[in-house]
Amino acid sequence: MIRLENVTRVYRLGDAEVQALAGVSLTIAEGSFTALMGPSGSGKSTLLHILGLLDRPTDGRYFLQGQDVGDLPDAQRTLLRRHTIGFVFQFFHLLPRLSARGNVELPMLFAGVPSEERKERAMAALAAVGLTHRASHRPDQLSGGERQRVALARAVVMRPKLLLADEPTGNLDRVSAGEIMELITGLNRQGLTVVLVTHDPAIAAYAERVLRMADGQIVGEGKL
Q1: pTM (2 d.p.)
Q2: Residue 54 to residue 46: CA distance in whole angstroms
Q3: How does pLDDT run across 81-121, given as a tens digit for each residue?
């Protein structure tokens, strides 16, 4: 599914350069579940953003499903991201004026999916996370765990091959976090490739493979 070859990412801050990634090489198999752990500033989120085509490497190569995506034009990257990758973030990023169903429909709206099909697929995605009874509720009418379920439904409604999750339980209580992780694990069992960033060993323990990062490099690997 994923192959990185000596990927670096350097940011320029005024006259200074900050190396966020320092020669990362990595292979992630289709259908696997990988967790990235490490202290703040270790490069976890930068690596996830590169994997999600939200950022580009300064140097090195990135192959996604065998395709070298490092130099793709922005329009092609957008299409590939829309149809291949789902995202879940710590802060949900739901639009406050839309209902749960409306938020789940958004990716399909941008992709030009017809209205009736959008509704059917959104309701099916909400059913998969146990929220059909909350489909008409706005985000401010939902609990944190319910908001993250909506965000997860939105992430998978386009039937991606890869799910990228950046601290998806960071704003949740322990019970809600466990429920979200059970949902993500269930999606992985159905064949979805998952890469998850977390600082929490209990969350990383859901993954079959844990990569530890420090100073922009992968410095260790193993199951917790």
Answers
A1: 0.90
A2: 9
A3: 888 999 988 777 899 999 999 999 999 998 889 999 999 99
Q: What's at 214, amino acid-wise?
A: A
Structural domains in the chain, CATH included, are 2-222 (3.40.50.300)
Beta bridge partners of 213: 218
Question: Which residues fall within 8 angstroms of residue 144, CB to CB, at 6 or more apart?
Answer: 92, 171, 172, 173, 176
Q: How far apart are CA 131 and CA 140, in angstroms?
A: 15
Q: 209-214 and 33-37 as β-strands: parallel, antiparallel, unpaired?
A: parallel
Mention every residue, 6+ apart, whose C-beta is less than 8 A from residue 67. 80
Q: CA 173, 175, 179, 182 torsion: positive or negative? A: positive
How many CA atoms, within 13 angstroms, populate the side-chain half-sphere of residue 161?
13
Half-sphere exposure of 98 (CA within 13 A, CB side): 14
Q: How far apart are CA 181 and CA 112, in angstroms?
A: 31
For the stretch 3-34, pLDDT in tens is: 999 999 999 888 888 899 999 999 999 999 99
- Rounded to 10 deg, the angle between the 100-110 and 144-156 helix axes is 20
Residue 155 identity (one-letter amino acid) = A
Q: Phi, psi (5° rounding) for residue 135? A: -60, -30
Buried b vs exposed e over 122-146: b needs ≥16 C-beta within 10 Å? bbebbebbebeebbeebbeebeebb
Cα 8 to Cα 193: distance, rounded to the nearest angstrom = 23
CA atoms within 13 A on the CB side of 175: 3
